[in-house]
Design brief:
mainly beta, 35-stranded parallel beta sheet, 69 strands
Length: about 700
């Protein structure tokens, strides 16, 4: 026992003792091993009490500087006026020790490699333990309570494979600066680990980060201000973490580095830095990244940022981040399966000029832009699908499908588009919907399907809101399109809704091409088949044929069963010398002369091929709504006329997927209906009466 002369509880009373020992009554134990000195200190079952007096070297009751060796076992250091134990450039070993009631930190180490196992840090005025810029090792069994900052603070470098463990969340590890994991080194956080992070701290991984959480015991990395986990670690009273409280995790694999992240059941919150300088988890040039069942939330930037690497994310949640849930830079390729993106300040997902993969099962709600935004290249055959109309795919630019590669769009898929959005197909585009679940390709502003994705209120979609589908098969390219039960609306920004140049094959069945700012379909130097489809309300021609063979309905076999009417110029423009059979279609009229006037063929120019439109249908298609306006508390609907209709019935519902009932609040004027504007959201459908 090494104690104050005034400590009458230990040994005999010393003459002159005042019987009131006080922190700092004496200086300290100072082990100094610089140069040729040994400075060896070995304490076994020792108590050091009331030290740390004025001018104590290292400001601690026990101080080691450049020691050859320093070992404390089952030793108690208490009531120091400074730190309990401090070291500089020495690698102390502490096992089963107690550091308590010291006015500074319980333990303070710099520039060393401390070995700490099963120690107790109790009631110290500063940190329970603070390791500053040290060579980090394995730590286990260390606990603490009642410290000014009740945690195990650390910064430094992991030079060899290490693993941390803790018996209690109430004495968590706390990042107090940068922790660097060197290349070819694995740093493991086991299940149940709680790591908090102080101001602007960071975990920088050149090697491998393994977070081996479980559903019952996730790994957590959160702000030191988050009292909901591990209590009031910082000792500043009730507080909760905020976006940007710390930098986050940065995995960097450039050049020969690994930068690998293997995270299971891991929760990361409050990162991104004060300047939103990085994602909560930033993956840059990572050799590999696998994120399963993880949560990334409340970050000042994106929850996850991907740069020049190919992570796999499965069943993860990105929520309440101030920017995007996930952002991927050009040159990356993110694999996303069954993830959730909720209440982020930007996009749920934003994949910018990336290598596109298969995506399925991803959902989201409450994001500022509530969709999976993407642009880039499909370089191998991929399939897109999703379970939620309200979290659609959104084209932010061009999606290029390479030659000899297929992009498959599955039944029920909704893909909206910004103005520059397009599918540029050198390979194959297969949009394979079903009657009850068509593929929908439409404007970002189209709220009739998937809700208000852009969060722009009641802004209406318009022709030319996006580019459309461009099939290009010149030279050795395929340029194939197979559209079945595919509804394509509001395209035509600089081309036809579907434009095919030199395509090997184009087959459109049971589909819809509407509201294009140009033609509905334009075929240049290729053949196409169009059947059972609606081509209407396009500002250019319904169909412009400048190719080889057009199959639009056999005059001796299967009828075309298309509805081609209400377009801005010609219903069908034959710009070739080849004749076209277009029998069994509805053209918006039951008068042959009227129909003939809508078709450009040899009647207009003798050098062009004739169009046979005989056996045309006189039974119109379903009404096509062309506009919905709400002005001066009056809702006005307008639609294209249906041949043979004796009248129309308007139905409404509070939601697009709800039950539609007849709306008797309005009056009919031909193909127009006007009614008082309802106080809540209303969706409308129209049925023609054929008698």
């Amino acid at each position: 026992i090494l104690t104050s002369v005034n400590d009458n509880l230990q040994g005999e009373q010393i003459p002159g003792s005042n019987a009131s020992p006080t922190a700092g009554d004496w200086r300290n134990i100072y082990a100094y091993g610089y140069s040729s000195n040994d400075g060896v200190l070995q304490l076994l079952q020792t108590q050091v009490l009331y030290g740390g007096g004025v001018n104590s070297p290292g400001g601690a009751a026990v101080y080691g500087n450049a020691c050859d060796s320093m070992s404390l076992t089952q030793t108690r250091v208490a009531q120091s006026a400074g730190h309990g134990l401090a070291t500089d450039s020495v690698s102390p070993s502490l096992s089963g020790c107690t550091l308590e009631a010291n006015l500074g930190h319980g333990l303070f180490c710099t520039g060393s490699t401390p070995q700490l196992t099963d120690n107790f840090f109790i009631g110290n005025g500063g940190w329970g333990a603070l390791l500053n810029s040290v060579a980090l090792s394995d730590y286990s069994g260390n606990t603490g309570s009642g410290n000014g900052i009740n945690g195990f603070g650390l910064s430094g470098t992991v030079y060899s494979d290490r693993s941390w463990s803790q018996p209690s969340h109430t004495f968590p590890f706390v990042l107090n600066g940068s922790i660097t994991v060197n290349d070819n080194v694995t740093f493991t956080l086991p299940a149940g680990m709680l790591v908090k992070a102080a101001d602007q701290s960071q975990l920088l991984v050149y090697g491998n980060l393994v977070c081996a959480g479980t559903e019952q015991a996730p790994v957590q990395l959160v702000s030191v201000q988050d009292d909901s986990q591990g209590g009031d670690t910082s000792g500043n009273g009730p507080s909760e973490g905020a976006p940007g409280d710390w930098q986050g995790v940065y995995c960097y694999g450039y050049s020969s580095n690994n930068g690998i992240a293997d995270l299971d059941w891991t929760v990361l919150r409050h990162a991104g830095g004060s300047g939103a300088s990085q994602g909560g988890l930033h993956l840059a040039y990572s050799d590999q990244a696998s994120l399963d069942d993880c949560t990334f939330g409340q970050c000042s930037a994106s929850g996850v940022t991907v740069e020049n690497c190919s992570p796999v994310l499965s069943r993860c949640l990105m929520e309440y981040n101030l920017s995007h849930g996930l952002y991927s830079n050009p040159g990356s390729s993110s694999h996303l399966l069954d993830n959730q993106f909720d209440h982020n300040g930007g996009w749920g997902v934003y994949l910018n000029s990336v290598t596109l993969t298969s995506y399925s099962g991803n959902t989201g709600t409450g994001n500022a832009l509530n969709g999976l935004g993407l642009s880039g290249t499909v370089s191998s055959t991929q399939t897109w699908q999703h379970p939620d109309d309200h979290f659609p795919f959104v084209l932010n630019g061009t999606v290029t499908v390479n030659d000899d590669v297929s992009l498959n769009l599955t039944p029920g898929l909704v893909c909206k588009s910004q103005p520059a959005g397009s599918f540029l197909v050198y390979g194959n585009l297969n949009a394979s919907g079903q009657a009850t679940a068509p593929v929908r390709l439409t404007s970002l502003r189209d709220d009739s399907i998937g809700g208000d994705t852009a969060n722009d209120g009641s802004v209406a979609p318009a022709p030319g809101d996006w580019v459309g589908v461009y099939l290009y098969g010149y030279s050795s390219n395929n340029g194939n399109g197979n559209l079945s039960w595919c509804y394509l609306d509001y395209a035509g920004n600089g081309q036809a809704a579907v434009q095919a140049d030199y395509c090997d094959n184009l087959n459109i069945q049971h589909s819809r091409l509407m509201f294009s700012a140009g033609d509905g379909l334009r075929a240049n130097y290729c053949s196409f088949s169009l059947g059972g489809s609606l081509v209407a309300a396009n500002q250019g021609a319904g169909v412009f044929h400048n190719g080889y063979t057009a199959t639009m309905g056999s005059c001796s076999g299967d009828a075309g069963s298309n509805c081609i009417f209400g377009n801005g110029s010609w219903a069908l423009y034959n710009n070739t010398t080849n004749p076209i059979e277009a029998c069994g279609n509805f053209w918006g009229s039951d008068d042959p002369a009227t129909i003939d006037a809508m078709i450009h063929d040899d009647d207009e120019n003798a050098s062009f091929g004739a169009v046979d439109f005989s056996n045309f249908s006189v039974i119109g298609c379903a009404p096509v709504i062309t506009s919905i306006t709400a002005v001066d508390d009056v809702v006005t609907l307008e639609w294209l006329p249906v041949a043979g209709a004796s009248g129309y019935i308007v139905y409404s519902s509070a939601t697009p997927w709800g039950t539609f009932t007849e709306d008797t609040s309005g009056v009919y004027m031909g193909t127009q209906w006007m009614a008082p504007r309802p106080s809540d959201l209303h969706c409308y459908r129209i049925t023609a009466i054929l008698e």
